[in-house]
Amino acid sequence: MPSNRGVVYEGPGKVEVLNIDYPKFEDPQGKKIEHAVIIKTATTNICGSDQHMVRGRTTAPAGLILGHEITGEVVEKGSDVLFINVGDLVSVPFNIACGRCRPCRERNTGVCLNVNNKQPGGAYGYVEMGGWAGGQANYVMVPFADFNLLKFPDKQKALEKILDLSMLSDIFPTGFHGARCAAVDVGSTVYIAGAGPVGLAAAASSRLLGAAVVIVGDRNEERLAHARDVGFETINILKHDNLSEQIEQIVGDPWVDAAIDAVGFEASAPGQAGARGEAAPASVLNQLMDITFVAGGVGIPGLYVTEDPGAPNEDAKRGMLKIRFGKGWSKSLHFHTGQAPVLQYNRQLMQAILHDRVQIAKVVNAALISLDEAPMGYQQFDRGAAKKFVLDPNGMARKKAA
Amino acid sequence: MPSNRGVVYEGPGKVEVLNIDYPKFEDPQGKKIEHAVIIKTATTNICGSDQHMVRGRTTAPAGLILGHEITGEVVEKGSDVLFINVGDLVSVPFNIACGRCRPCRERNTGVCLNVNNKQPGGAYGYVEMGGWAGGQANYVMVPFADFNLLKFPDKQKALEKILDLSMLSDIFPTGFHGARCAAVDVGSTVYIAGAGPVGLAAAASSRLLGAAVVIVGDRNEERLAHARDVGFETINILKHDNLSEQIEQIVGDPWVDAAIDAVGFEASAPGQAGARGEAAPASVLNQLMDITFVAGGVGIPGLYVTEDPGAPNEDAKRGMLKIRFGKGWSKSLHFHTGQAPVLQYNRQLMQAILHDRVQIAKVVNAALISLDEAPMGYQQFDRGAAKKFVLDPNGMARKKAA
Amino acid sequence: MPSNRGVVYEGPGKVEVLNIDYPKFEDPQGKKIEHAVIIKTATTNICGSDQHMVRGRTTAPAGLILGHEITGEVVEKGSDVLFINVGDLVSVPFNIACGRCRPCRERNTGVCLNVNNKQPGGAYGYVEMGGWAGGQANYVMVPFADFNLLKFPDKQKALEKILDLSMLSDIFPTGFHGARCAAVDVGSTVYIAGAGPVGLAAAASSRLLGAAVVIVGDRNEERLAHARDVGFETINILKHDNLSEQIEQIVGDPWVDAAIDAVGFEASAPGQAGARGEAAPASVLNQLMDITFVAGGVGIPGLYVTEDPGAPNEDAKRGMLKIRFGKGWSKSLHFHTGQAPVLQYNRQLMQAILHDRVQIAKVVNAALISLDEAPMGYQQFDRGAAKKFVLDPNGMARKKAA
Amino acid sequence: MPSNRGVVYEGPGKVEVLNIDYPKFEDPQGKKIEHAVIIKTATTNICGSDQHMVRGRTTAPAGLILGHEITGEVVEKGSDVLFINVGDLVSVPFNIACGRCRPCRERNTGVCLNVNNKQPGGAYGYVEMGGWAGGQANYVMVPFADFNLLKFPDKQKALEKILDLSMLSDIFPTGFHGARCAAVDVGSTVYIAGAGPVGLAAAASSRLLGAAVVIVGDRNEERLAHARDVGFETINILKHDNLSEQIEQIVGDPWVDAAIDAVGFEASAPGQAGARGEAAPASVLNQLMDITFVAGGVGIPGLYVTEDPGAPNEDAKRGMLKIRFGKGWSKSLHFHTGQAPVLQYNRQLMQAILHDRVQIAKVVNAALISLDEAPMGYQQFDRGAAKKFVLDPNGMARKKAA
After folding, report:
1. Distance from CA of residue C358 to its chain's centroid?
2. What is the mean pLDDT of residues B32-41?
3. Which terminus of chain A has fewer CB atoms gathered within 10 Å of its CB, N or C?
């Protein structure tokens, strides 16, 4: 049995790379399962939502193995894995889904009923998401493998584009889900709040969907500069106090057809200085209602939590937001929330990558680092680095890039 | 020129029937128009949203002629009205729409850009909705008549069902829009907050869409008794403090597939006594997030306002609501707001009425009264009468019923 | 191991009830499988599509065990069946689907890629559909059970409605698929070609979807009389030569909003006498193009085959039909073909049955017979009996009805 | 009153530029209308569907003024034109639509009920389409102007892109409609039959919708060479007899996700030499059924006629096609026919042009010629020139290009 090392959350602000157990064919309750595979990770990314845990904004226990963005090679499989084979190179959706319950049958794999005892929806290496070990490691177990895994049709070609394909496990479908829910279409004008990796993935998705104008807003000038470099319009929300006016200068109208919230509950008050201004969890939602065209859509892939123990006031601790709802109502807006159901989108996005329709790794500024560099990656990302860190635990991606 | 009398808002709590001008072929700015007709009203209903004005919760000026639910006969027409003729019996959608702007072309007639100088969307006899005279009168002018009007194919048959057809101008499409937006479908379980006319219309719509179970919740026992009489399940939200449990007793699961908010911003805190408990404008929205199945829809035809000068606190005055948004996000819910675009639905609902698929007048407990009884109707409705008052200004409906 | 008897196709016009093997946990290629269950049949229906085989219009081999409409109780399960348990009463969709391939993930379970070596899509007891044993027997094996099976929430209540629930395995979803594809909606006028069980199920589905007028056309007066008995409008296509005129008399317009072909390739020329007139395989399609409103939909659940060795001419033998396609094009019609993907609809239709929104057994005139009476059932159905025969191999349904 | 000259159909094979009447504010029945404008044409294109008339394949009468692809400046307007003004530069959808009937309200402007006495749907300068004068002229009248016209927001910028914007009146939306109906989506593989302007517009549309691979098939090598020049994959259907194999070489699978028929009823038998091989009107449809993935869509913007007097046999004369329908049924395909409803798409496609997301003029190889050169343009286009001819009757476009 090969040795295994992984990125472990040890407490607020602290992650370490430690020896961990090699995965077993068992569910988190210790029951033997036939439907799983063991994956040798090719790449596994650091995600903004991991930061919520690492910053101590959640109830994540010390000892949690992190990582839900996983791409890799199948090295072992259970007896009821029929269509995936040892040797296949695959993308693992971050949502764990059984493929057999009502939400899964209806394609809502983000809220599967059978993979988490506490609430609908499961994920690898994440607090309250079912207790499945994370994938920032050499090896990880993937349940319901036939249903969950997306196999790349040509292994060699896939390895050549591994940094792009690595985004299929989470942020590319997450950004795409935001764009789709916002009803981005050919010719749309789009505003995206947040120039982090999800915001950039939403921007790339909007462009892929044919949007005429894609604007990204943020307060982090380094991220905005990168967004411009990869072809998007930008707005620095610190430098102006009227978003509609800034949009009008770019688009010609003081509104956009579709808006995407790629920030979530850790939003800060607009127009305030600092890497993060004063906490203002509803500020992005309220802004998007102002600038979205009548009858338009607001896609909300940014995370909003039911409990936020680290929040500055009682309302926010209970996940209670002050939303100017009448504004949205008067404009007949619609709002779409929740985790992206990755399986709804990853096949078609893979095709777009393989046929050179999108350079998603470049758009999100993917940076390949070793497993041991993971703690450094967490730190830099937390400070707002305009990068998406991709770990390479087994040297498979590095070898390719060389 | 015939004489004209109408229902006039004279100040908080005060409506009177007064002599008013006979309509002209002019828009509210006084410009001559070719696209209008004059309607002799057959029926015109009192609406819950009129009550917001009459209660003094808005900035409606004294002198406003009320009424946006209009059915009647065309008696005159402009030179560019080509497909509607004098003598036609028609339903008038409460939303005034030009039929020529982008939202209208995209079927979003509730947010037309050309009929109101202040904001998108217009209506008859309503504050901030463009200054068009209301239709609780003998005669009313309807602009863009070819586009807006729904002609009944057989005048005599229509007069026989005039109380049902009268609901096509607003509440039936409004309830239907709520159900459609909530994604009610064959076999759905549905919870509707509010047993007033819009709630009952949403219930009838849900049944028409094939819902398996339709539950209406309210605190007004008279309205709930009527809802049971016309075949719906009911929940008295005063008598229990856990809505999920009550739903589980009816449905077998502690959730519904779809939820509809037919209450809006004048909601009261659940579990509190009184015709109206303590104002709690977000309470319905927060409850619906609790009880809606994962990935489900919430339709929100109930009105939420951008400004509420009569509200009990500063947040509510600015239309700011405390919403437990993380709850909805964790369940991947979607939310649809705004006025119903009546023209999207009224033709098909007319067909359902004419072919006896629905008895909407009975469901909402339509009560025919004379124009002079309008002030009494406003009073009784404000007190929570389980009725939908239909005015009969020209005796056309009464004659029929006799 | 219990003994097993089943309905066996022995050659054109000949079916017998014979002793057959008790099912094994093996796929048709003899490979051991972990994902299957053994079902003790409660009910199993005779289907019109079985008749194509029994009439000798296909290449079905002698010895084939018939039956793809199955409802029953789970008596054994494989090691990777996790959410279905022994003792559960379940509906079995006629389409066999793996739940793991691209079409299955996209809900197109009628064209699964993994259950049939010859072409996409599998079924029980059907020629060219993968070699899976049929279910007109005491016991039958169901693969990919967690994915395929629909469990009834309350076994006792379900047994009381077993004749209705029995229709969930095929014809109710098939009729519903036709209606959905034809875009039947609230207030629609609908014409359905064919008053057999699928046509009646399409009619019941249309009504459930809120259709204002539902018309069923056929040449079999007994079937039409039954259709009228259960509340539909009817047209005897033998008695008139202009379908539009007949529709106009019922609807008021010479068209319908939506049309459904519940006949398929064994259609006869309209206006010709005899239980079946001269073969005219495109006649239904051509008629539906005439009578469907502009931009309308045509749902085609009726079977069209790629090869028809028994057809009267060379074109028809190759599945080549003479279609007046320009007619459809000039009206901007859309056409939807293929097997119903039962899993897309059966849960919601089950809810409609369990909550008394539809009496599907009554609509299709279900008639319960014993396994030994199956040959008689085949004969009567072939002669056009206005009945849907339901076999009761283990006396479970009969006991209930008693 | 300015003088007016236009392109007139004089009989099979013969078009001439003649003096014609200056347009009046009258409908084809001679009735005065308030809703029209007079347009001074900036550009007006020759369309493949004009060729059907010019070749004598229709009942078009001599004297017909041709031209339904019109872009220009408003020079006069009727009293009920409120939102379009003199001086506006506009695109005119080729479908004439009243904006007031049921199909128009439902966005199906290709089958308007009020603009043609003979059948649903009207167009400028086209046989059986309502008798409206064509726009290959200096001036043309456009009815229901507020509803029909798309105004360019910035006149100067629009003139700079006039060759691209000129494609908004017909072929760009027509190609886009084909792609949309075929359900082309991000990551799709697409096959388009026909490398003429509509096929190329469908290809550009597919790319704009995010398709991963776009393949165009034709027998005209000049057109295929141009298609390759603008970035599409191509297949010469004369050089191979198995389309699936050729697709597999490009895509890796022997199918595509979506297929578009941009040829229509004048198709020739595949694999046959000559600019046009033997007439085989169903050959494209039959091919597309072979190569489309299960549950996929087939978009059919290519014209199919109800009567084809010039066809080689009786069936084809009545618009009767031999279609291998069972093939499509076994794969659960869906088919969408008819004229594109231009107004559904032209605004968003305009945005894509104005913001440099697509170079449609380059893709279709637009060639600007004078009004007097129109007869030459018709001739060259009929011979299969890989060009889209754009007439410039008033020198407005030429001036710009200079």
Report:
1. 17
2. 98
3. C
